[in-house]
User: What shape does this take?
Amino acid sequence: MLAYFFVLFAILFRLIPHPWGFTPLTGSLLFFGARGSRRMMWLPLALMMACDVVLTRFWYALPITWDQYVTWVWYAAILWLGTRLKNRQTPLPVLGAALAGSASFFVVSNFAVWAATDLYPRSVGGLMTCYGVGLLHFPRNLAGDVLFTSAMFATPVVLQALSRAWDKHDHTAAA
Assistant: This one.
């Protein structure tokens, strides 16, 4: 249930202004991959795609271009990476997955922008300029991915600890 909540939270978060430039997208996809139903893996992917269509077509009034499909493949890859965490939900693998999510999104999305748009010359110099401009946003994206991924994977641990602490109290005295 928590995996579904985090995906919905990520979608709603994308619909509000986020001036710091970070979102819970990567964390929610990693968490769903690790904790969500394998049979329902299509659901967060479909919801994120639908959110992208709404944002791109209606919010920003832009056409859907082929670089958007690259982003959708990246969503699926992050969900798959989350499945690799199913039995390894300790801090180091989770942090590694968040870092891999940030780095892969930086590489893939900036390459797609360079290849799909006329913003940069079609040369090695143009590609390097595109990555250079992207570097300005990378620290905030990385911080958001680490923050939200850590918080999402810590939530069930904290909830279990609170539940155990609550169960240790003698509830008969209150009655």
Q: What stands out?
A: Residues 2-151 form one domain.
